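Problem: given the chain below (385 residues), write out its structure.
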Amino acid sequence: MKAVHFGAGNIGRGFIGDLLNNSGYFITFLDVNKPMIDAINKNGSYYFYWIDKGYSKREVTNVAGIYLVDEQDAAIKAIEECDILTTSVWADNLPKIAAVVAKGLKQRLVSGQPKINVLACENALFASDRLRREVVNTGIITDAELHQVSNFVNTSVDRLALTNVRNGETCLDIDSNCELMIESSALVDPKSQPIQGADYVETLKPFIERKLYVVNCGHAAAGYLSYLKGYPYVQDGFADAEIVKQVEDLMWESAQVMIKEYGFGEDEMKHYIKKTIAIWTSGTVKDDTRRVCRSPIRKVNDTDRLVAPAKAYWNLFGEEQLYPKVIAAAYAFVNEEDEQAVELQRAIAQNGIEAAIEKYSNIPATAPLAKQIVKNFLTFKELQK
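Solution.
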């Protein structure tokens, strides 16, 4: 069996590649990182280390790589011949791979290949649906043609995958705890399980939102609160009792939304939060604060991890607690190397924080949530002077 995976980054190699390998696939990684692709092709394998297993080494074999910049014909051919197509390129980059995906799937149609599953394994709501829209928008393949050759299947993903340096060597460190939820009803064969180690559910929305609203929300909060205190690593923030308490309380607010909306058990959600916090506070990894805080425009969007649960909490309980502070911290994030952070700060400087909140978070300036975000933002800016 053959798998094509877009993205040879930490999640691609340390999570999805790991599971695809365990499922018996030969994996072809597609990426724009030439040194990474060259290394995969040179060795015919790659390896990572298990954080929670004494940093024991895991080698993944039966792999190859294609450099997307110069080898698009090879990428199209690989898609034509594969049995499953997956991605982990960062949700903002899905439009960048849409044309190659479209050309590959179009070629499958021309050559009469069977229908395949396409799974966008990204930290975003309904990423596979988004990728499908981007593929159709290329004009290379029609919606009807796409339906003939592929099913785009939504997923929810969660695994700690970090780059570290030990003994002068750059290492990929992975926690063995993981969650890949796949919407079984959308598969080409709903009764199949194409990836071993995944969980299959008929309706994915509750699990996507649980991951985004609780885990991703909490991790982003830890990042932005650590940034405000000047911590270079999020783990420094997790050593700060005040930040840990705020993150835990925020995750519990999101958990209450999950309990009310989808009927998750209270004890179940408490265990879910406790397990997640335990991984983050283990002290065995160092996660760069700027990395966790990157792409703030996406994270303050009203469909993403901060504003979406804040709005849901307000609608259900009629009040805001910690969300305004964390959202304001995201708006206060400054990083000249992050395009979205630069754009966000420019918009605030030119038009004011109220206009920025309305534009990027779709919250009217007159809304109570917007007013609380503004209040917290101005406090943070005073402290940063």
